[in-house]
Amino acid sequence: MSLIDQLKDHMKQAMIAKEKARLSTIRMALAAIKQIEVDTRETLNDEQVIAVLTKMVKQRRDSIAQYEAAGRSELAAAEAEEIQVIETFLPTPLSEAEIAAFIDAAIAEIGASSMADMGKVMGALKPKVQGRADMGAIGAMIRAKLQ
Fold first, then answer.
1. What's the confidence (pLDDT) of residue 70?
2. Is the confidence at residue 135, as pLDDT, over 90?
3. Angle between the 46-69 and 3-17 helix axes, to the nearest 10 degrees?
4. pLDDT at residue 6 above 90?
5. Whose CB among 44, 71, 88, 115 lies 3.0–4.6 Å from 48's, allowing a Cys bridge?
6. 138 vs 53, 90, 134, 147, CA distance in Å?
7. What angle do CA 39, 56, 10 make, to 5 degrees?
8. Cβ(23)–Cβ(14) below 8 Å
9. Whole-number mean pLDDT of the chain?
């Protein structure tokens, strides 16, 4: 079953269970996916859907930081709840050891030896870890290894 079908199935379950917050979050995710499909005039595959969901999680984390800085804890809590719903559709996160192993393999595969090769390493890693790890944290780990 594709990820879009899973989202639609969970949307129906949320409707039946009258889970308003879960339902609105899933609808929001499906709307974002549909918007990209309309814009690009193609059906998204699971990897592209994961990229959309990952972007949605990142946006919500940024919003939480802004809401907390403004003292709006109720809005930050709502965003955190949305993150929890979205993350149920993302692959399981990688551990730091797994990320380090991926980084080491990519550095060895590319033959990276300096910071000039960081973009190549990131390009090789992105399809393998998309949706399973924070690319910002991975960038910091690559920088530490390449220096």
1. 95
2. no
3. 50
4. yes
5. 44
6. 18, 18, 6, 14
7. 90
8. yes
9. 91
For the chain, domains (ranges, CATH) are 1-86 (1.10.1510.10), 94-143 (1.10.10.410)
Side-chain-side CA neighbours of 40 within 13 Å: the count stands at 11
- Where residue 18 falls (left for φ over 0; alpha for ψ -120 to 50; beta otherwise) is left
Please, which pLDDT band fits residue 60 given cuts at 50, 70 and 90? Answer: very high
The torsion defined by the Cα of 101, 104, 107 and 111, in degrees rounded to 10, comes to -130
Global confidence as pTM: 0.79
Q: Give the residue carrying structure tokens 């499906």.
A: 30
